Amino acid sequence: MEPLLELKGLTKYFPVTGGFIIKRQVGNVHAVDGVDIKVGEGETVGLVGESGCGKSTLGRLAARLYEPTFGKVLYRGQDISHASRRALKPIRPEIQMIFQDPYSSLNPRQTVGTIIRGPMEINGINPHGGHEKRVRELLETVGLNPEHYNRFPHEFSGGQRQRIGIARALALNPKLIIADEPVSALDVSIQAQVVNLLQELQRDLGIAFLFIAHDLAVVRHFSQRVAVMYLGKVVEVGDRESIYERPRHPYTHALLSAVPEATVDDEPRQRIRLAGDVPSPINPPTGCRFRTRCWKAQDRCAEEVPPLIQVAGNREGHLTACHFPEAPTTHGEDVVLDPALA
Amino acid sequence: MTAVTLTETGPGRRGDSFLSVQDLHVSFSTEDGTVKAVDGLSFEVEKGTTLGIVGESGSGKSVTNLAILGLHNTEHAEIGGEIWFEDQELVGASRTTLERLRGNQIAMIFQDPLTALSPFHTVGRQIGEVYRKHKGASKREARDRAIEMLDRVGIPNARVRVDDYPHHFSGGMRQRVMIAMALVCDPSLVIADEPTTALDVTVQAQILDLLKDLQDQMGTSIILITHDLGVVAQAAHNVLVMYAGRAVERGTVREVLGAPRHPYTWGLLSSAPRLGSSVDVPLKPVRGTPPSLLNPPSGCRFHPRCDYLKQVGPDLCSTEQPELSPETGHADACYLTLKQKQEIYTELMEGR
Question: Which residues cross the membrane (chain B) (predicted)?
Answer without folding.
Answer: none
